[in-house]
Amino acid sequence: MPRGNLFILSGPAGAGKGTLRKILFREMPGLVFSVSCTTRERRAGETEGLDYYYISRGEFEKMIERDEFLEWAEVHGNCYGTRKKDVERVLDEGRDVLLEIDVQGCRLVKARMPGAIRIFITASSLDELENRLEERGTESRAQLDVRLRNAAMEMRHAREYDHIIVNDALPRASEELIETVKRYKKT
Ligand code: 5GP
Prior knowledge:
Layout: E1 6-10, H1 17-27, E2 32-33, E3 36-38, E4 52-54, H2 57-65, E5 69-75, E6 78-83, H3 84-92, E7 97-100, H4 103-112, E8 117-122, H5 126-136, H6 141-156, E9 163-166, H7 170-183
Parallel strand pairs: 1-7, 1-8, 2-7, 3-4, 8-9
Antiparallel strand pairs: 3-6, 5-6
Helix pairs in contact: 1-7, 5-6
């Protein structure tokens, strides 16, 4: 059986990655989302096992020692990692999987799995990102500043990706994302 496709979705906070991802999964029920492990606190509205596995730093470090991560990175002061065995199992079953990870993680995965398809979601400008993050209101001012500094860094890496989608209007951007993913479908 041919192995499934591995998609990587990255982009700065506030670009609308989460919203676009949810629309994509509604359209493509066969696609599997890789649930990451994180040491950050659960946000209101998030669900354990669906959005993330929320674990302590100690547990995270043990998983690093046991070499359980396909990749991991520190983002905005917290650790995030993709479990190797989950991704491998899904790909071996011939199903497509999507990782929503940062630019550092994307590089690590691409080095290990050169066939990975990288998609970058961005807003039209940094100002636009700031507005959206403020509207979302899920972060404190200090957390917001960290995310904005990181956003500028992430946007400089957009060129490394196979596809760049500017989320200036949700219906158009979601259509573009769905079309991009569908293009790689094997069946
Ligand atoms: P958030 O805390 O807003 O959910 O995510 C912060 C950042 O961490 C986002 O850029 C997200 O894509 C990234 N991220 C989430 N899971 C992983 C992961 O498993 N590995 C890496 N490298 N980044 C991740």
